[in-house]
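In this supplementary section we document a worked example of the pipeline. Step one takes a protein sequence of length 427 as its only input; no multiple sequence alignment statistics are reported here. Step two produces a three-dimensional model, which step three serialises into structure tokens for compact storage. The input and output of this example are shown verbatim.
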Amino acid sequence: MNQPLSPDPTLRHRSHEVTLTLRRPDGSACADTDVFVEQTRHAFAFGNIGFDFIGLANADTAESPGAVFGGADPEAAERLVDLWLDVFNTATLPFYWSGFEPVRGEPLTERTLTAARWFRDRGVSLKGHPLAWHTLAPTWLLDASTAEVEQVLRARIRREVAAFGGLVDTWDAINELVIMPVFDNEEQQNAITRLCRQLGRIPMARLAFEEARAADPGVRLVLNDFNMSTAYECLIEGVLEAGIRVDAIGLQSHMHQGYWGEERTLEVLERFARYGLPLHLSETTLLSGDLMPAEIEDLNDHQVPSWPSTPEGEERQADELVRHYRTLLSHPSVEAITYWGLTDLGSWLGAPAGLVRADGTPKPAYEALHRLVKQEWWMEPTHLRTDSEGRVKVRGWAGNYRLSVQSATATFDLGPDSSRADVTVAP
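The serialised model returned by step three reads:
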């Protein structure tokens, strides 16, 4: 195991400096020249689910089938687009098997591909969630033998990863594996638990990761779980010791029972950072209404007829969201945060966890996150001037940048490995 990186509340590790040497197409230096520099994208993955826009991307009408899983109707989605795109650069698309392939052999591939292309056309990176999971497994698998379940699952993983190659570059390869072989719910019988019970957790992880990797060797694969106990640590250790290549560790943080707080958050990050892998806060929520009672063990068990957002709750949510994101960004191992839902409309469990109210108006938490992502953690458009050799220094958050010299433009990246770069500016 690697020595974990230490948190830094100043976030100095998130910004970098590069010395650019600007040249014209003929190779001459742009000496003593005014330059305009602006940031165009964060390298850090500020994510949210993209479920709301599947119908919009497919030009649905009121009579259309709707999203693969949840999501706003096209009219509501149209009002949310700018809010989503103005903060987030990474979308999680739903591949819950029962919704993605409700009838065996009839997956909703084209519909989801259309949504994936819609996001990519807008500069958004994509993650698929999940390839293997016991919950929301298709009921048509229940009567299959365990050997057939394995065969069909392997084929399903290869099919999805191959079909979305070049669009979806990150996948939750397997979800909630800690509980998978012991999951026992009469109302949610599934064939994947049966398979995992027979194979064991480590072989099940190998199945998911190796099938996905075979379909697309360049894809990034995440081991994702809600269980933050030592059981998850033991699983990770077993998976890594078995030689299974994991690209990132996914940590769910649905805080329906209250904000974790800085101390607990950092304790969790430190424990999972010791494996030397990037950490993805894969499912994050904070409530703007009443909190779920502390005695609830399975969040799905808390069902209430109405769960409204309140003015007091919205102020609390905004404060906690800023504290949580600052804490997460302070740890160098964290490279992605996915907030689980933009709006309260159709939110998981009906909880007031969105950053936008059901009527489409932003909550204080949305405004607070926007200020962080696009103001405090974003380089303001800047006028600079090159020296006599065409050099200019630029410092900002890791990400993509564009510069303009009169009518000529160029792009460059800022990151930990980009201390010097030659840039050719051209009309």
